[in-house]
Amino acid sequence: MITLADIYLWGQHAGTVAWDENYQAASFEFTLASEAVFLES
């Protein structure tokens, strides 16, 4: 079974995480928003 979760940062959609229970693996697909502000650590 694959579970999806939308990720929001500061009220804007940042991407989606897909979790596959069979393989115990996750992947992250990010969304590039035209007004996104990225912070460096």
Name the shape in a single word: elongated
Residue stretches low in confidence (pLDDT < 50, at least 5 long) are: none
Strand order of the largest sheet: 1-2-3
What is the beta-strand fraction?
Answer: over 45%
Percent helix: under 10%
Which radius of gyration do the C-alpha atoms yield? 12 Å
Number of strands: 3
**Helix/strand class:** mainly beta
Order of helices and strands: EEE
Gist?
With 41 residues, the protein is mostly beta strands. The chain has strands at residues 2-9, 12-20, 25-30.
Any key phrases for this structure?
single chain, 41 residues, mainly beta, three-stranded antiparallel β-sheet, 56% strand
Question: Can you walk me through this structure?
Answer:
The protein has a three-stranded antiparallel sheet with strand order 1-2-3, with no helix packed on it. With 41 residues, the protein is mainly beta. The protein is built from no helices and three strands. The chain is elongated, with a radius of gyration of 12 Å. Helices cover 0% and strands 56% of the residues. The termini are far apart. Strand 1 and strand 2 form a beta hairpin.
